[in-house]
Amino acid sequence: MRNQINYRVIYGDTDCGQVMYYANYFRLFEIGRTELIRSAGITYKDIEEKYNIILPVVEAFAKYKASAKYDDLLTIETFIKELKTHKITFEYQILKEGRLLVEGYTVHVPINREGKIVKFPEEIYKILKTLEKKG
Predict the structure, then answer these.
(1) Residue 24 and residue 13: Cα distance in Å, rounded?
(2) pLDDT, tens digit, for every residue of 6-45?
(3) Is the dihedral of CA 8, 13, 16, 19 positive or negative?
């Protein structure tokens, strides 16, 4: 399943040339994965509070193909590329009017409050599995 959400580039996202600052694309990645998970009926807040796990980023990658600028309307496309019992990889595409600007991924592992890697609780794993890209 691929989730799409729109985002308008605000002035604070840009550098002095009104070009979106490179690190801000990782914020868009976060928006995309948060909304993808929400589309399955669960929130990051639920995962943290109800299941007592945190999903830190352990790896992040972005490939820049073109720049977004102040006031551009972007589309964030997000999907789960890989899901294992102890790891999840999200992939992202940032587009402007159908043109690919940035693509990337983040890898997350579930950890408990003591910082130890744990398996996803079965209920969460099943929910996330429904979002995994097929094919």
Answers:
(1) 6
(2) 999 999 999 999 999 999 999 999 999 999 999 999 999 9
(3) negative
β-sheet with 73-84: strand ranges across: 3-8, 73-84, 87-96, 99-108, 57-64
Residues present in the chain in total: 135
Structure tokens, 124 = 């969460």
The predicted pLDDT at position 133 comes to: 63
Band the pLDDT of 135: cuts 50, 70, 90.
very low
Taking residue 57's Cβ as centre, other Cβ atoms within 10 Å add up to 14
Neighbours of 113 (CB within 10 A): 9
**How far apart are the C-alpha atoms of 115 and 135, rounded to whole Å?**
33
Query: Quick one: tokens of 112?
Result: 């408990």
DSSP assignment, residue 60?
Answer: E
**Phi then psi for 80, rounded to 5 degrees?**
-90, 120
CATH topology of domain 3-131: Thiol Ester Dehydrase; Chain A (3.10.129)
> What backbone torsions phi and psi does residue 73 show, to the nearest 5 degrees?
-95, 115
